[in-house]
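Help! Submission page says 'invalid entity' but I think these are all valid:
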Amino acid sequence: SVSGVPQPYIKHPLQNMWTLWYYENDRNKNWEENQREVTSFDTVEDFWSLFHHIKQASELKQGCDYSLFKKGILPMWEDDANKRGGRWLINLEKKHRGHDLNNYWLEVLLCLIGEAFDDYHEDVCGAVVNIRAKGDKIGIWTSDALKSQSVVEIGRKIKTRLNINPNMPIGYQIHKDTMAKSGSVTKNTYT
Amino acid sequence: GTRIVYERAFLLQLRNSP
């Protein structure tokens, strides 16, 4: 400091408070019981403190999820903020668990807390990473599937920030379609 | 209104802050 007197460290506030959720699949419990709220934070330092404290995504057991959502939004389709929306889905091949999964997930977290989606950030609800035997997935959830410009621009930003090959398409699935699907494939409303 | 935006590099810089 200029005066020579040590100044207190002031944490860097985030635009939004974010809540981390952890899902572990216990067949003796229902979905809601398995989805646990871990903690909330609203500064950069508290984000890093939490991030360093928990397991990396690649260290989670099969069937587990991490979710990061704006405070007050539950990580489920039925929440008011999510029910008219959908998600951009990044599918990862099994061989990419580890390095790519952790890098992608961290990048998504930095996009969320750093408000990387410019004018469309109001439409962003949160993100989920699913650790699954058949392939891990990262979803970025938005609130309104009908706001096509917002959805597409958010998708573009995701591809840029995650350095996804421009020739590799990613798909946006509306939650209503995911809920209603009869097979294993949900249609992409946007790519 | 205003919005608090953090660049990626800045967030990473704070990773090891006290």
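Support: the input was valid. A stray whitespace character was the problem, and the output above is from the cleaned input. Chain B has a mean pLDDT of 92.
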